[in-house]
Amino acid sequence: MPSSVMPTSNEGAHPSPTAVSAIGLRKSYGDKVVLDGIDLRIPAGSVFALLGPNGAGKTTAVKILSTLITADAGEMQVAGHDLATAPQAVRAAIGVTGQFSAVDGLITGEENMLLMADLHHLPKGEGRRVTAELLERFDLVEAAKKPASTYSGGMKRRLDIAMTLVGNPRIIFLDEPTTGLDPRSRHNMWGIIRGLVSDGVTVLLTTQYLEEADELADRIAVLNDGKIAAEGSADELKRLIPGGHVRLRFTDPAAYQTAAAALREVTRDDESLALQIPSDGSQRELRSILDWLDSAGIEADELTVHTPDLDDVFFALTSSTTQPKETVR
Amino acid sequence: MSALTLAVRDTNTMLRRNLLHARRYPSLTLNLLLTPVMLLLVFVYIFGDTMSAGIGGGGADRSEYIAYIVPGLLLMTIGSTTVGTAVSFANDMAEGIIARFRTMAIHRGSVITGHVIGSVLQSVMSVVFVGAVAVAIGFRSTDATLLEWLAAFGLLTLFALALTWIAVGIGLVSPNAEAASNNAMPLILLPLFSSAFVPVDSMPGWFRPVAEYQPFTPAIETLRGLLLGTEIGHNGWLTIGWCVGLTVLGYFWSTAKFSGDPKN
């Protein structure tokens, strides 16, 4: 397969050249601001997830970065090419699988693949070879001669990604790749995405599933109301918000009572004889808690560290904080 | 690869996609062919006697009326198949595959030009089919030379090209297939207000200028002149003017619409 031109990946001196970058990206439709100045930097070879609820602007961001629509403002580069001045060069480096399947339903799966091969100007023989290879890889050989409109949701999505891969793109945009898929197809798709990453491809994916971002992404940006509410690795994001704690469990009720009396800032769970001490789960805090327990002469039977999961983070970051609080009467 | 080679290659790919659609799903084209063929048979075999009497001033027989309406029906066939173009283009634009094309490093115009060439080919094939039906029921050219036959063929192709570009524009601005079909109605209705079925000078005076200068009438009169040896006069230039004008208008309209941000 011919390798696509991507100048950034040739600068071996830098450990992780930037595959996609955006500064101050803005887009409005009429009065409605969809993207309100977002900044992104995606290192080559990594998986970046844009996580957000419906209507947060994820799809708009992908449409702009994949040259489908134009931004109102912002400086954007993809594969080292400026989006505004060299969209064709950007297009040559990327592959896009949109939220709604981008297959031609009137022709067969195989014809769809050959169409892509022709549009990438592959020689006939090579086009056939790549088509056969990808149909095999995505388990579509049996359905290859049937019209794509007769495919199931999961099959359409697989064909969609197979078509995206025909040109061997180095940067792939996946807009909600698993929305509407059943659990088996979803896990299938995750496997496919992991496979892409192991080939060194850069992936920007959008999702509304936290589990998905946690599973696949190196870095996650939480998009809410057209702004990036937080960005980091899944673990960094989890540490951002309160809710983490150290849980001490006792078997001896007397020891439990002593400890509860000695430790003031705790949440008691009398039924299971457990105490919760707020903590961000960092090593430093853990040590100070342990020192404190030692000096107070408390020995718990079980100690566990709980960090918030992405759900906690997501709800904390995306719940609207502008609503006036109701006064308690 | 030079820009031109790229354009030709991508257009060729898009044309093959378009023809594949037409071959896989011929029902739309066949449905649209039904209208001109039905009208031909109805006007000849059901209204034929009255119509013949009307145009011939009383003494004409039916074959003279066949000769009269066939040129109009051939052009109406083009109008009818281009309604199909508007519909299939609107359908296509609603498909995700077009969004994919827009994110690929292909020649942008090829998506439209491939469609246009495919549609013109279909129009010409439809005209040949309706022409064959006409010959089967007794249509004969009186004195057309080879050159006149070629000119007639060229005229039909040029007319198909012009209406196809307009139909593509209609398809692009229509949100869905139903809207495209409605918006393209004039393409199939205009022939009814032309000299296709009755001569313009038999129409009420206030309506004559409309009938005389709309695109179909000059094209019909020119085609009649070429195939049947009637007077062409200024209609030849008028036809070429209309065809070139509509092609240029449709081309700029469609490409401007297509190169902007797609509808959401």
TrEMBL record, chain B:
Compartment list: Cell membrane; Membrane
Principal location listed in the UniProt entry: membrane
Domain ABC transmembrane type-2: 27-261
Recorded topology in the membrane: Multi-pass membrane protein
InterPro entries registered for this protein in UniProt: ABC2_TM (IPR013525), ABC2_TM_bact-type (IPR047817), ABC_2_transport (IPR000412), Nod_factor_ABC_transporter (IPR051784)
Pfam families: ABC2_membrane
Keywords annotated in UniProt: Antibiotic resistance, Cell membrane, Membrane, Transmembrane, Transmembrane helix, Transport
PROSITE patterns: ABC_TM2
Membrane-spanning residues: 25-46, 66-90, 111-137, 149-172, 184-200, 236-254
Family: Belongs to the ABC-2 integral membrane protein family.
Protein name: Transport permease protein
Lineage per the UniProt record: Bacteria, Bacillati, Actinomycetota, Actinomycetes, Kitasatosporales
